[in-house]
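Pilot study result, target chain (117 residues):
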Amino acid sequence: MIVGQRVKTARLNKNLSQEELGNLLGVTKVSVCGYERGTRIPTLSTFLSLSEILDLEPNYLLGRDVKVVSEQDAKYSVKMAKEDIRLIQALKKHPQLHKNLRLDPDRYLELIERKLK
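Predicted structure:
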C-alpha cells in the first residue's frame, strides 16, 4: 500500500491527473487508479517509468526509505518505512491496544477489521 500512497502523493504534487499520468505511462486511468489503491501492480517497465516521471527513487517508491532500528550492542537491525514507524509510534500511545496486539495480533486485527465494516 505504501507504493500506492506514494504514487498518489507524487502525482498530486506534480499536478497530474490520473489520466495525464496514464498517458505519460502508456496505460489507462483505471490502471493508475489501481496502482494508487494497491489493487494493481505495475509491470517492471511501468514501475521504472513511474519513478522517472514522478522523480522518485525506486527504493523510496517501494517503501525502502528506511530507518535502521537496532538495539544497543545488538547484532541485528530492522529496516522499516517511515509510515510503519509512525504507525507503531501512534499505537504506543494506546498502551492496552498495543499490548493486546503484541500478545495476539491476528485476533485483535480481526476484531478491528470487523468493527470497521
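One observation from the pilot: The longest strand covers residues 67-69. A full batch analysis is planned for the follow-on phase.
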